[in-house]
Amino acid sequence: MNEIENQKNKGFFGWIERVGNKLPDPVVLFMILAAIVIGVSGIAGATGLSVEYFDAEAGENLTVEAISLLSAEGLNHIFNSAVDNFTGFAPLGTVLVTMLGVGIAEWTGLIESTLKRLLSNVPAFLLSAAVVFAGIISNIASDVGYVVIIPLGALIFAGAGRHPLAGLAAAFAGVSGGFSANLLVGPTDALLVDIANAALTSAGIEYNITITANWYFMIVSTIVLTVVGALITDKFVEPRLGEYHGDYRPDFETLTKDELKGLRNALIVLVIYAIIMAVLMFPQGALFRSYDEAIGAESINDFLATGLLLAIFLLFALPGLAYGITVGKIKSSSDFVKGMTEAMSSMGNYIVLAFFAAQLIDYFNYTNLGTILAVSGADLLESVNLTGLPLILGFIGVSGFINLFIGSASAKWAILAPIFTPMLYNLNIAPEMTLVAYRIADSSTNVISPLLNYFPMILIFAQRYDKKAGIGTLVSTMLAYSMAFLVTWTILLIIWFLLGLSLGPGASITL
C-alpha cells in the first residue's frame, strides 16, 4: 500500500470508509436493511407503537400507528407492490431518460472535446467553485441536477486532469447539500411556503409567508456555500483521494480540424435549440407557462418540475448528434441508437440497485416508522422547553437527524411545520426564521443519507471511475461537506439572527 493510501485510511474519515466498505455489496445491504425494517415493523405493530400529531392540511390531530409487514396485509403489500415500487421509483425514469441524451453526447466524443476546449489553464479553485455553484443553482430545475450536474462534475474534473471522484463529490455537495440555496426563487420555495402557511392557518394564526420569504438569506447562502464547498474539495477531499489511478483516461491531444468543426456545429444546434426553448418558456402566454397559484401569476414552475426532463435529453442529444455526424462517429441511424444503447448498458448495476432501494424506501414509508421517528424527535425537542436561538439550533439538529431517514423535504416539513411553526411563533420567532432553519437542516445531511432517493445512483456513478468505491467511500467523502455546510450555514444564520437582518422582502426574524 502506497503512502497516499496509508494517509487516506488514517483518522476518523478513514475509519468511516473502511467500516463502510466492509459492508456487503450495496444491493445486498439494501436487502438486509429491508429485512430489518420488516422485523422492526413486526415488533412495533405488535406492541401498538403510535404517535399523534396535528395535520395542517386535514385541520385535525392524527394518530399514526406502526404497520407491521409481517401481518397478512403487510405480506400482501410486499408482494403486490414490488413492481410498482420499482417502476414508480422517482429517480429511475429521471436517470435513464437523461442518460440517453448524455450517452449520445459522451459516446460521440462531444463532452470530451468540449472539456478539452474549455478547461485548459483553469485555476483549480475556480473550477471547484464553478462545479459547486452549478450544483447549487440547479435545484431551480428540481431534481435534474442529480442526473446532469453530478456526472458532469466527475467528467469535468477528469478532463482537467484531476480526480473524477472529487468532481463528483463537489457537484453532489452543491446539488444536494446546498439544495435549499439559490439565486432565484423556485418550486421548492413555493412548496415549503404553502405547507408553512397551512400550518399557521390551522393553528389559528393570521400570518402569511410569501414565496420570497427566505430569498435574501438564500442568495448569500449560495455564495457562502460555493466558497466553502470549493475549499473542502481542494483542501481536504482531493488531497485525501490522492492521485487518480482508475480506468478513465481522457485524451489530452490537441483537437483535430474535424473535432473543432464538430464543436462549432454542435454549438450552432445548441443555440438554435436554446432560442426555441426560450420562446416556449419565457414570453407572457408562452406554451410552457401556466398559472401558478403560489405567486398569483404565470410561471414555468410546472414545466420545470415535470417537463424539463425531456428538454434536458434533447439538450444533450441534438448537439451530440450534430457533433457525431460531423466527425464521422454517426454515419447511420443505427449509430445514433448505438450511442444510447451503450449509455444504457452502463446503467445495468443501477437498475438492479434501484429495484431493491425502491423496496426499502417503500417499506419505511408504508410502516410509518419514518413518521413515528419524526414526530417523536419533535416531541422530545418540544419537551426540553428551550427558547430563542437555542431552540432554533435544537430544531436544526433534530431536523438534520430526521433527514437521514426521510429524504423528502416536503414530507418532513408537513410533519414538523404544524408543530414548530406555531410553537416558535408563540415564542416571538417569525415563521420565516423557522422555515430557513428547517431548510438548512434538510439540505446539509442529504449527502450522507443512504435513504436519499438518488444515493444509489451516485454510488453507481462513483463506481464508473473507481470500481472499489463503496458506501463507505461515498459517505466518508461527503461527510466533510455535510459537516462544513451544516456548521457554516448555522453560523451564518446565527449572525443573521443577532444582527436582525431581513431574510427576504418584508420577512423578519422575530415578531
Automatic annotation (TrEMBL):
| Gene name of this polypeptide | mtrF
Q: What is this protein called?
A: Aminobenzoyl-glutamate transporter
Q: Which GO terms describe its biological process?
A: p-aminobenzoyl-glutamate transmembrane transport
Keywords attached to this entry:
Membrane, Transmembrane, Transmembrane helix
Q: Where are the transmembrane segments?
A: 27-46, 89-111, 118-138, 144-161, 168-185, 215-233, 266-283, 303-326, 347-366, 386-406, 413-431, 443-462, 474-499
At the top level, the lineage of the source is Bacteria
Q: Does the keyword Transmembrane apply?
A: yes
The terms under GO molecular function for this entry are: secondary active p-aminobenzoyl-glutamate transmembrane transporter activity
